[in-house]
Amino acid sequence: MRDAPQWLRGLVSEEFFDACAAHPGERKNEKNHYCVDCAAALCRHCLPHHPAHDVIQIWKHANSFVVRVDDLIKLFDCAGIQTHTLSDHEVVFLRERIARKRPANAEINPCAACKRPLPSADDYCSLFCKVKHLGESEQGLRRAIRAAAGEDADVPGKRRASSSEAGPSCGGSFRNRSRKQLEPTRAPFC
Ligand SMILES: [Zn+2]
Ligand SMILES: [Zn+2]
Ligand SMILES: [Zn+2]
């Protein structure tokens, strides 16, 4: 975790949904946003003070903080993190969750970091666990952090290289290829 950039450490450790200290007494002052540029939790009244900053919304699911994959994917490679569906959006948990039950059998796939049993074939139960696990090898974490969010990381030559890597990793052409071309029903006379 030490090697993770400040915004990422903040994202997985902030207490969201507390009342905003900058806006006591305002209605709806719970901190349900996160500014990546400032590495700070924000309430809706804070938002006008962070124009042009990268701000993502935090949601609650099963009493835990979650972010939408669509928001996080710009900043961090979410591959391998277990996703859940919340209001038709895919979300991931920010932090590791306390396992309530011990795994019933050893076949259940455990989270690579916290060993919580995962019902899916994913590697991690949460963003925290992926960051923690990748943090054990410095390069792994660097690779997972998107170019846009890695700007504060002091690797000047790295940005250009990683933006070219950020292209689509899997060609989606397989399905198209198998689809038959629609031919005109009447064959042309020769
Ligand atoms: Zn900001
Ligand atoms: Zn505020
Ligand atoms: Zn975990």
UniProtKB/TrEMBL annotation:
- A GO molecular-function annotation: zinc ion binding
For this UniProt record, give its keywords in alphabetical order, as a comma-separated list.
Answer: Metal-binding, Zinc, Zinc-finger
Q: Per its UniProt record, what SUPFAM superfamilies does this chain match?
A: B-box zinc-binding domain (SSF57845)
Region (Disordered) residue ranges read: 149-190
PROSITE patterns this protein is in? ZF_BBOX
Keyword check for Zinc-finger: yes
The B box-type domain, residue ranges: 20-58
Enumerate the InterPro entries for this protein. PLATZ (IPR006734), Znf_B-box (IPR000315)
Q: Which PANTHER family does this entry report, sorted A to Z? A: OS02G0661400 PROTEIN, PLATZ TRANSCRIPTION FACTOR FAMILY PROTEIN
**What name does UniProt use for this protein?**
B box-type domain-containing protein
UniProt lineage? Eukaryota, Viridiplantae, Streptophyta, Embryophyta, Tracheophyta
